[in-house]
Amino acid sequence: MRTCVLAAVAVVVVAGAARADDGKDVRDLAALYAKAAKDKDRAGLERLLRPDYHGARVPVGEVEGKRELTRAEAVALWTGLGQKHAGLSFTTARVRLYGATAVETGSLTVTIGQRGGPSAHIFNDVGYTRVWVKGDAGWQLAHESY
């Protein structure tokens, strides 16, 4: 009986540690996503976004106002030559884990200059929700909505 209890405690401790590592992994990937967007890193964005990625109401770029974005459109948005990020800051508020799915909530603050002029738009603390899925390629962003 004592062996069974110790084994059960060990399983709970290991599972808790794995969940904590997954939460940290998702937070780290969220930071990498912000860096890839700011640096216009096409390869980094393509690694982080699932092939079936879906974005909704992304508040910046030349597709502003478009309700739905595919992976290719999101990569084009963040790497587009007409997009100049004067300031870009993602803040992760919370990560909740549901097995191989993680839900990240946070906010985006961005200052951008549009092509053809120095005008800047400032979005301050725009809330977002992201859904990360852990698959064969590790954690990847499946959906984000602002």
UniProtKB/TrEMBL annotation:
All residue ranges annotated as the DUF4440 domain in the record: 26-141
Species this chain originates from: Urbifossiella limnaea
Matching Gene3D superfamilies: 3.10.450.50
Keyword Isomerase: no
SUPFAM superfamilies the UniProt entry points to: NTF2-like (SSF54427)
Keyword vocabulary terms for this entry: Signal
InterPro entries: DUF4440, NTF2-like_dom_sf
Classification via Pfam families: DUF4440
Coiled-coil features, chain-numbered ranges: none
Secretion signal span: 1-20
Stated name of the protein: DUF4440 domain-containing protein
